[in-house]
Amino acid sequence: MSSMIQRVIEIIKRIYKNKVSKLLFFFSKERIHTKRYLKEIKDCHKGKRGFIICNGTSLTAKDLDILEKLEEICFACNKIDKIFNQTLWRPTYYAIL
Predict the structure, then answer these.
(1) I want to staple 90 with a disulfide (CB 3.0 to 4.6 A). Which of 19, 36, 48, 61 is the partner?
(2) Does the CA dihedral 70-76-78-79 come out positive or negative?
(3) Per residue in 72-86, pLDDT tens?
């Protein structure tokens, strides 16, 4: 893995305070590793419900606090970190698109 990608990973881990279970990176050089990783985690939450969290004006910290309390599986991406100063919730999976 290139040093630039490693630096990006470390910055993201610091921002998310290591609460993100898995970080999905779709860099072209890492695509093979990402495909392998996705095969490894396939069905790991089978039978459980999950939530896709989208950034938007209707998203509130209160909604996320409920998901945090219930320990729900959540997917989020991009600028979801803008709400982190209002909640302890962090996504289970985070994608950079």
Answers:
(1) 19
(2) negative
(3) 999 998 888 889 999
Strand, coil or helix: 95: strand
In this structure, which long-range contacts are made by residues 46-50, counting pairs with CB atoms below 8 Å and at least 24 apart in sequence? Answer: 48/73, 49/73, 50/74, 50/75, 50/92
Give the 3-state DSSP-derived string for 10-51, with helices as H, strands as E and coil as C.
HHHHHHCCCCCCEEECCCHHHHHHHHHHHHHHCCCCCCCCEE
Confidence band, pLDDT 50/70/90 cuts, at residue 27: very low
- C-alpha dist (Å) from residue 80 to 13, 15, 64: 14, 11, 11
3-state secondary structure at position 55:
coil
CA distance 31 to 39: 12
Residue tagged 């999950």 (tokens)? 50
Q: How far apart are CA 5 and CA 43, in angstroms?
A: 27
Sole residue written with tokens 């999905």: 24
